[in-house]
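Suppose you are handed a protein chain with no further information: no name, no annotation, nothing but its sequence. What can you learn? This example shows the usual starting point.
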Amino acid sequence: MTRALIAARKSTKVDGKEGYSLHTQDDYARAFCERLSLEVVGVASDTISGRVAPVDRKSLGAWLAEPHRFDVVVAYRTDRLSRGNQEDWTRIEHWATEHGKALIIVDSSTGIRYPARDDSDYWQWQATKREAGREWENARERSVRAQQALVAKGAVTFQAPFGYRIAGEYMSKVFEVVPEEAEVVRGVFGRVTEGMSLREVAEWFTEATGLRCGPTRIHAMVNSWTYAGRLERNGEHYGDCPEIISPGELVAAQKALRSRAKKSGGGRPSAEPALMSMTCGECGSRMYRAGNTAADARAYYCKGKHAFGVDAKSADAFVLHVLRTSKEKEKVPTLIKGKDWADEIETCKRDRRQALERDDIEKVLLLTETLKELEAREVEPDRMEVTETDRTYGDIFSAMSRDEIRAELKKWEVMADPAKGIKVISPWASA
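A reasonable first move is to predict its three-dimensional structure. Written in structure tokens, the prediction is:
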């Protein structure tokens, strides 16, 4: 006996209607299988909306991965199998062909089948696929119209956030404040404004409500204007609801969040930032200044195993002295563009095409030889040419402020070695 798998799909509610329930589809499909003496070995039921390919559905996809368990797939209607585009249909049709299975849509006779048994099957199958696609488009259009109608009325178009519940009739639903939850919401905004971290506020929320909460949820709450009585869709204000906090309180909490986001490393910028970053002469890793607030206790440390460090105050003084007394001439880089002959080659190809269109064979032959010569030329890459000026680096650095020197030192290398001491290396040392 031929083994049948019933494929059923129920959409989420559209316009408040359930459509064909899974039980209804099951009953019709089973009756069809019984009439054709097909043995039902399973039902793949999925609750999904929109366009999801059959092989990507949770239940049906799992069955399709084990094709040895059945011989045919039976669906009450084509859109119960798929509302997908041609690519989705091609995938399920390829699956059926590859595994020698049949796809059957229930009708009053022996079903509309793929692979087609005759021309009638073929054209009916194509027609039902188009009908399923149109049904999805129509459902989507109805949903959009319903959303637009709700927006026009100023009604709720999304789920109630924590602190509210939905009340009212269909197409006229509104938010009502849940008093005990509203107190928690006020507590969230107050703690954020006071400077508590999002993690700390989330932990307090979890303890107060028993609901699992993380920093991301608290961040979303603080940025939701619903709590200030403003309903928004796609960033546009379209309606109002009861406010739990005032707009001023919401803005204050948002400002508190932004001010924390601006901090670097969780604290204030240093009043005296490091003059430079060094390279460790032993391991080649970067060394950064660290220490307490006393300037004489700071040092440049290497985080390698040897934990090598140099006194920051002495190192800064030494480097400044080297820079301000340097007799090395200033070097200025100039980019010298190379030559790849690409423009000449393209021009030659264009002229040859035009000569060919004019049937100017002599010109075509001449340009062909020119093109070969151009393509055989060596490519000259871009290069950097460094020239010296009359100024010394000592003159330049002596005229700079500490901040200007700090910016310029990003181009230089300062290397510290336990045995050889500190070495200042110009960016053009190897030029």
